[in-house]
Amino acid sequence: MLSNCKIVLLFFFLLLLSCKKSGDNGAVKPDPVPESFSFNSLKVNGNFNGFNYYGINTKPVVKLSFSKALDKNSVSGNISLKDAAGNSVTYSSSFEDNDATIVIQPADNLLFLTKYNLFVSNGLTAADKGKLQTAITVNLQTAIDSTDKFPVISDDELLTLVQKQTFKYFWDFGHPVSGLARERNTSGDIVTSGGSGFGIMAIVTAINRNFISRADGLARLTTMVNFLTDKAQKFHGAFPHWINGATGAVQPFSEKDNGADLVETSYLMEGLLVARQYFNGSDTQEAALRAKINALWNGVEWSWFRKNNENTLYWHWSPNFNWDMNMSVKGWNEALITYILGASSATYAISKEVYDNGWAQNGAMKNGNSYFGIQLPLGPPQGGPLFFEHYSFLAVNPNGLSDQYADYQQQTVNHAKINYQYCVTNPAGNYGYSNSCWGLTASDIPNGYSASAPGNDLGVIAPTAAISSLPYTPEESMTTLRFFYYKLGDKLWGDYGFYDAFSLKEPWFASSYLAIDQGPIICMIENYRSKLLWNLFMSCPEVKTGMKNLGFQSPNL
C-alpha cells in the first residue's frame, strides 16, 4: 500500500504530464478562414459613371478592380453578361494588376440600342479563397446605330413623304362604314370626333398635294358628313368624344363621359369648316357637302353649354349624369378654338363676357414668367404639353394674332422654344434628349398614356410634338425630323408614318398610332409650307366676325 507521500508525488507527475500534452506543438489546428475581399473600382471604356452606362459602343471594355488577386477559375461561374431577356452573351476576360483587376469584353459586337447587364456574384473568390463581400451589377445600354436608315433626300421631298405616309392613317385606315378616323390603330369600331376633324383637314391637304384626287376626297368627306348627319348621336348639336363608327352610337370615354364633348366637337367643326371653304365648286356634290356641313355647324348649341347661363362653357354633358363632370373650359390649354367657334356661331353665339370670364379667367390664364430666358405669355409653368399650341392652331393662324391677353405668335413660338430648351438642357438627365431629339406632349408611354411636359417628364419623346411645331421652330423641328427619319427610322417609321412615341432611355418604341397625334403632323407641316389650312379657316366670314367680337386683331381677319 502506497504511502501518502508517494500518492502526492504521483499526482503531481500525472498533472505535469497532462499539461505537457495539452501544449504540444504537434497537435492538429483548424485552417484559418480567408478574409473576404471587396470591390474597389469600375471603368467602362476608361470612364467611371456609377453603375449605369448609356450610349456605349457595341464592344465595350469593362474593368473591375478588387482588393485581392482573383481566383481565375471562379470567374466563368460568377461573372455573366446578359441581355434584357436574360440571354447570356459570350465574353473574353483578361487580368491586370497582379490579377486584382479583370477586363471583360464581349466576344462579338453587341446590338445597337439594347440593354445589357454585367453580373458579378458574391461567389467570386480570391486566390486565397476569400469570398467577395457584395455582389455587383453594371447596367449597360448601347448607342443608336448612327448610320442613315434610308437614302438621303431633300428636305422638301422629306416633308412630302412624311405628309403622304401619315395621311395613310386617315385614308387607308379610316373606318370602312363611316369614313371617320379611328381613335388609334387598335380601336376597331371606335372613331374619334376630334381626331376626325384633324383627318378632314388631312384629306384637304392630301388633295392639295395630289396624294388623292379631288373627286375621291369629296366622296370620302361626303360619306363622313352623311354619317355625322344621319347616324351619329348628337346632344344639343354636340358630338361625343368617341362614336361607334359602324352604328353611330356613343362609345363612352368614361362612365360619365357618355354624351356631348364640346371641345372634341370644336375640333370636328374646325375641320368641317376648312372643308366647306375648300370645296367651293358650283357642282351639286360640292354644294350638297357645304349645305350639310352648314347644318351640322349651325346645329351646335354653344350657348346652351354655359350650363344655366353661367359666363363659361362646360366641356361635357351626359343624358344620364347631366353636368356631373362639371369641367369648365378654361385657359390656357388646347381649347381656344371652342370659344372662337362659340363666338362665331350664327345660331347659338356666346358673348365676349363668356370668353373673358370663362376662358381667360379675367386674366388668370396669364403667365408672363421667363424660362430659359424665354418669356411665356400664357399657361402653366414652362408651358405644359405642346399640344396646347397645336390643336386650335391647326386652323387658327397665330401669326400676327393678338388680343388683350397675349400675342399668340409669341405664345406659340415661345412655348415650343421652351419645350426645346428644356429637352436640350435635360435637367432630369434622360438619355437621348438633345437638340435633335426633343418634344414633350401627350402620347402613349410604356404601359400607358400621359401628357408629357417639363413638369411631367417621363423620358418619352413624341414625334408629333416637334414636327407639329414646324411653323414655330422651323430649324429645330426640321433637325429633329431628319433625326427621327434617318437615324431612328428602322424603329420609328411605319405604315402610317412615325409611331406615336419612344424612349431611348428604356429603350422603348411604341407600335401605336393615334389620330390626334398623326393629324397635327400632316396639318402643321402644310401650314408651314403653304398656310393652306390657316388661309381656309380664317377666310370663314363667321369666324372673322366671331374673333373680332372677342377682341382679336390680326391681318388675317
UniProtKB/TrEMBL annotation:
Domain Glycoamylase-like, first and last residues per copy: 328-541
Domain of life of the organism encoding this protein: Bacteria
Signal peptide bounds: 1-23
Domain SbsA Ig-like: 57-132
The UniProt record lists the keyword Signal: yes
InterPro entries on file: Cu-Rt/internalin_Ig-like, Glycoamylase-like_cons_dom, SbsA_Ig
UniProt keyword annotations, A-Z: Signal
Pfam families reported for this sequence: Big_5, Glycoamylase
Protein name: Beta-glucosidase
Organism from which the protein derives: Hufsiella arboris
